[in-house]
Amino acid sequence: VAAALLAGVAAAGAAGGLSAQAAGTVTRIAGPDRYRTAAAASAFGWNTGGTVVIATGANFPDALCGAPLAHAYGGPILLTPPAALPASVTAEIARLGATSAIVLGGTGAVSAAVEGTLRSQLGGWETSPLGGNGSKSAMLAYYPDTGVVTIQEYFWPAVSW
Question: For residue 80, what is the DSSP state?
Fold first, then answer.
């Protein structure tokens, strides 16, 4: 699955600003934790990025459902613990030269403190929180005009998006 995912990401490179990868290549991207793995995936796939998508690393639905949104903005999804933005994520945002961030989920998933850190790092540029009362309403907030509806209990349609 991971090899197929990386191959699909590499194939989409021209449209999404991703680095090219030779056909048939399998690359493992890993870090000592999920936050540094997400930052490493960003570094592997993006040379620059105007918009980054921030999701909690405590649970997967927000990040999974935010994948089409990140694709639409041509930027990576970076993960954070709810309470504080890790140094690996702030370093990756700086490396990308990001000018805006979209924060997925309510303040229970990504705290106001994380949003404040993002605002400070981005020099007051826009951060756009997208959230709701749990993953179901947050998902509906992500894609109100697309016809794509995926809820936490049934996430497989988002995987095949």
Answer: E
Burial of 77 (0-12, 13-18, 19+ CB in 10 A): buried
- Please, where are the H alpha helices in 58-130? 61-73, 87-96, 112-121
CA dist 19 and 125 (Å) reads 26
Q: CA 150, CA 155: separation in Å to the nearest integer?
A: 6
Question: Model's pTM, two decimal places?
Answer: 0.70
Instruction: Print burial letters for 22-50: b (CB count within 10 Å at least 16), e (below 16).
Output: eeeeeeebeeeebbbbbbbbbbbbbeebe
Summarised one tens digit per residue, pLDDT across range 66-104 is 888 898 889 999 999 999 999 999 999 999 999 888 888
DSSP string, 36-47: HHHHHHHHHHBS
**Are the C-beta atoms of residues 13 and 71 closer than 8 Å to each other?**
no
Q: In angstroms, how far is CA 14 from the centroid of its own chain?
A: 19
Among residues 16, 82, 84, the alpha carbon closest in space to that of 51 is found at: 16
